[in-house]
Amino acid sequence: MYYEITTDGISNENNEPYFLKCKKSPLEAIIKDFKRLLLLRGLEIPTDLIAENNDTESKETEIVLKYSFLDSEDAKEKVKLTFKVSKKYEF
């Protein structure tokens, strides 16, 4: 089994639609790759990053990252980025 992860909110380093494939822990994979993409674009990693995972046993789930690029005290509203996670089975 593996996971396919997509989102409409960001693109990869080649400005192509975001796509990530991992064998385990999609939440960790998303956070690690999100940080990598921010650093490639010269942006700082948000200090107020929150991840919400509605992890269910269903075939598809969503992971939501909420963050802001301003100091937490100044930011009234966080950016919301939703990743769709699909379980795939190899035969």
Specify the overall morphology.
Answer: globular
Strand content: 35-45%
- How is the largest sheet built, in terms of strand order? 2-1-5-4-3
Number of strands: 5
Instruction: List the domain count as a whole number.
Output: 1
Q: How is the biggest beta sheet arranged?
A: 5 strands, antiparallel
Low-confidence stretches: none
Structural class by sheet pairing and helices = alpha+beta
Measured distance between first and last alpha carbons: 9 Å
Describe this structure as you would to a colleague.
The model has no long low-confidence stretch (mean pLDDT 86). It is built from 1 helix and 5 strands; from the N terminus they run ββαβββ. It has a 5-stranded antiparallel sheet with strand order 2-1-5-4-3, covered by helices on one side. The protein is 16% helix and 42% strand. The longest helix is centred in the middle third of the chain and has 15 residues, at 26-40. It is of the alpha+beta class and 91 residues long. The protein is globular, with a radius of gyration of 14 Å. The protein has one domain.
Task: Quickly list its features.
alpha+beta, about 90 residues
